[in-house]
Amino acid sequence: ATNTASQLGAIAALKDASFLEEYNRIFDRRRKIVYEIFNSIPGVSMAMPESTFLCWVNVSRLGTADEVNAYIIKEANVVDAGTPYGAQGEGHLRIVFGAFREDAQMVTALERVKAALMKLGKEKGVS
Known about the structure:
Layout: H1 4-15, H2 19-39, E1 54-58, H3 65-76, E2 92-96, H4 103-124
Antiparallel strand pairs: 1-2
Helix pairs in contact: 2-4, 3-4
């Protein structure tokens, strides 16, 4: 069951959805930033996220999802392997980028992930 605070928030949102346009702009900007960051890393690729909260990053050229995840946790202290989400998650990282309050916080975290992936790519000889 949904908690009372969530129900009240949903009712308020349905009564006045004027905030949605601003949120759509924010999340559209963020998904484009995420796309640009990850596609700038050698050996890493991703499609433009259709969602405004998370994306799947293909890191299969750098290792298994679990190997890359463990490396990034050690190097950047962030990320989540795709394998817990089913077989199709192998070779991918699941990145939730919609939970940040500010764009700058998101970019800081993603730049740490990018630096770790670039370091791993160099170690693996991926260019």
